[in-house]
Amino acid sequence: MEHDIRPWGEYFVLEDTPTHKVKRIIVKPRGRLSYQYHHHRAEAWTVVSGTATITLDGVIIDFQPGATAIIPLGAKHRVENRQTEDLVFIEVQTGTYFGEDDIVRIEDDYNRK
Questions:
Q1: Are 85 and 22 in contact (CB under 8 A)?
Q2: What is the model's pLDDT at position 68?
Q3: Residue 67 CA to chain centroid, in angstroms?
């Protein structure tokens, strides 16, 4: 199983096929991913534990366990953990390409391109 540690937390790839990719993502307290978009994939994020503060095209909404956020292809998005416990969610990617180089970062707390 692919595992990657990032400045905001970590993820595990649960499934990787030509038609979809599934990740279990853990965001540390006070961590947040870059504000970004993708050219080749849409995503669905289902919160497992914690509260996900999600920005989608400039609109900020809190998602509780069991809720799913739909991230359309090309939509600007970010997830943030404003709580004191880990945020865990499942990400399902659908589209034509799932490489990490399909991340177009608009803002990033960690100065990544």
A1: no
A2: 98
A3: 14
For the chain, which ranges sit under pLDDT 50? none
Domain boundaries, the chain: 3-107
Class of domain 3-107: mainly beta
- CB under 8 Å to 99, separation ≥6 — which residues? none
Residues whose CB falls within 8 Å of the CB of residue 52, separated by 6 or more in sequence, listed in order? 27, 45, 62, 63, 67, 69, 79, 80, 81, 87, 89
**The tokens of 58 are what?**
């400039």
pTM: 0.95
3-state secondary structure of 102: helix
Q: Judge whether 33 and 78 are in contact, CB under 8 Å.
A: yes
Q: What is the largest CA-CA distance in the chain?
A: 37
77-106 b/e with 16+ CB inside 10 Å = b?
bbbbbebeebbbbebbbebeebeeebbeee
* 98 Cβ neighbours under 8 A, 6+ residues apart: 16, 20, 21, 40, 41
